[in-house]
Specification:
It is a single chain. The chain has six helices and no strands. The protein has 179 residues and is mainly alpha-helical. It has one domain. Helix 2 runs parallel beside helix 4. The longest helix is centred in the C-terminal third of the chain and has 26 residues. It is globular and about 50 Å long.
């Protein structure tokens, strides 16, 4: 019985990894070859942020780096730049996750939205400074807006399907540390 929280943590990590890999695979499928005037939301990013805010023990830093570095390579982005941006965001949110447990959902959503906007602006600024090719601003903004808008849906689906919820007051991990 003492190993139950540890088992739950590893099942959460495995679930996150499988979800991310399925989403990456689906994004790589050539289902629509015509260019669009809008970009779909970054669901892997939304799930990562949602799980870090709600259950930071399910999504450790090394797993985030692994998943997003794989995304950088497969989606032909500059390797490591977006990974670094996501890692900075998630570690900032992880350090605030305990304080975000007691705030209303709208404040949590606003905090996540500000973080997503900051990393998008920082990423685009660094790419512009380095004279790297940039996606059109409209596509970047549509992806950012849709990622922010889909955050509540991701939270609801994560809670209903995978049991990713805020830890209860007094809940501890396998070593007796508070979650």
């Amino acid at each position: 019985m003492a190993e139950l929280p540890s088992t739950r943590r590893w099942l959460g990590r495995l679930s996150f990894t499988l979800i991310a890999l399925v989403l990456i695979f689906a994004k790589l499928l050539p289902l629509d070859t015509m260019p669009r005037h809008w970009a779909p939301p970054d669901i892997v990013l939304a799930i990562t942020v949602a799980w870090v805010v709600r259950r930071p023990d399910f999504v450790p830093s090394w797993l985030i780096v692994t998943i997003f570095l794989l995304c950088d390579i497969l989606f032909q982005r500059p390797p490591g730049l977006w990974t670094l941006m996501v890692l900075l965001l998630t570690e900032g949110l992880r350090s605030r996750s305990e304080g975000l447990r007691d705030v209303p959902f709208m404040l949590e959503w606003a905090t996540v939205a500000v973080g997503l906007i900051l990393i998008a602006v920082l990423n685009r600024t660094i790419l512009a400074i380095l004279l790297a090719p940039l996606a059109p601003l409209g596509l970047t903004l549509s992806q950012l807006a849709l990622t922010i808008l889909i955050y509540p849906v991701i939270l609801m689906a994560s809670q209903v399907l995978f049991g990713v919820r805020r830890p209860a007051p007094g809940e501890v991990d396998g070593l007796g540390h508070p979650l």
